[in-house]
Here is the input.
Amino acid sequence: MPEGIRKVNVIGHLHPDTDSICSAIAYAHLKNEVEHTNIYEARRAGAVNRETAFVLRHFGFDEPELITSVTPQVKDTEIQRQGGIDGEMSLFRAWNLMRDAKCDTLCVTSEDNDLEGLIAVKDIANANMDVFDTSALGKAGTCYASVTDTLDGEMILGDPMGRITDGDVHVGTTPEMMEDGVQSGDIVLVTNRYETQRFAVEHGASCLVICCSAQASDEVLELAREHGCAVITTPYDTFAAARLITMAVPVRAKMLSEGILKVSVNTTIDDARKMMARSRHRFFPVIDENSHYVGLISSPSLLTAKKKHVILVDHNERAQSVEGLEQAEIMEIIDHHRIGSIETSSPAYFRNMPVGCTCTIVYMMYQENGVEIPRDIAGLMLSAILSDTLAFRSPTCTQVDRRAAEDLARICGEDIPTYSDAMFEAGADLTGRTAEEVFHQDFKVFSRGNVKFGVGQGSYMTEKSRKAAEALVGPYLAEAARSEELPLVFYLFTDVKSSSSEILWYGEGAEGIVSRAFDVEPESGLALLPGVVSRKKQVIPALMATLQSTQEDQD
Here is the structure.
């Protein structure tokens, strides 16, 4: 993403309905048309119900990506983009890279950029201090090219890509001193003494390292060729070469490969901080969604995390929104519900209008900005208005909603009665659906005082489909209340054509609340509510008033 450009998530409420999804898509499109300082992307805060899925398919849209939290994540911090290294890199090369990059940790990766291990400065220091491990080169299968590179030398005999498979490192002094020490396969460091060079080769040395830029005679080279002994020359003296040679070991031999503490770009800052607090490491690898290595992060990096920028549509209550909202930057709220409990840390654009649908407000904003509405976007907004207003039957419907829907129908070429019937029928289809799926297709949580409660609603075109939904969802209400951790749950089953609803409930005192709120006499755990079709305008206010009255009586 270009420097200075931020991604802004446009999000509807939990358990999204058609208006929540369609207003997010339509408003994100409008913002991208009129503003070019950010990138606006629609997101959904839950599973899409069948009505909304029908709408999206009908107008050629994919479901928006799911978002469950806007808590800052690792990808919102400054990740140190230190590239991965090959496991064959020598410890010497790794140490120099750390020095140049001013970091003390490197990640070892495969050709596909998968994380294979971690090497830290302390690992190299430990290897360097282990002066008695004279067999390190052989145990690690060190490549001769790494030895030559580490010693800044030249391989004058042998295969640079060959590997040391066994033997110890020895410093050759005199034949007498070497007689009991040098074994077949050993690596021997020598100077310019002919006798010492010859003795090492004849006793089976696998590699002769000639220090101080000394030369080997033709006779020694021929003898080394006959014995299969590699010959390397280095400008370093014997002391320096002896110190350096074990640093030719590949990092794969000393890296941490098991139990690596790593974080994903999607790990929350809070979770990353807790993990880091349990470790003595300073730097931690970061992997992406495909488990590929991205870079490194440290505890101080978490302090630079940027807040996610969000726009809320079709809701303004904290209980109906995604997790982590208090840690996000709310830029705008576009809604048509009562003003709820969300607070912002800085001024935000807030547009709340008493209309039947958020997409009606979005339609007006298209008009105000002089932006032409594409056919597919018009179809989404029409669908949302018809869904929220129950095809103009809801008391929340205004003339503004009706005029907007008629214009949008003209743009997208849909016949309102025919299309609305098809949309509602798709939403009412219970084939293959579970009670949980039907329950959550349009469910919201509210609060009054110390009491939280949930109200769901389903709209049906026929009595048969409505009764089938009641039979499916009714027995599930108790389980829903437990899973949502709510003392009271109400569910509205609305008959679109007769403009009436039946309500079911669960919770202590719920039946009495329904009786007082709607002045009805429930029968067999169900109450008929003639003329009640709007949760927002007819159900929530009545339940809120009753709950408040109940609390006052108890006080």
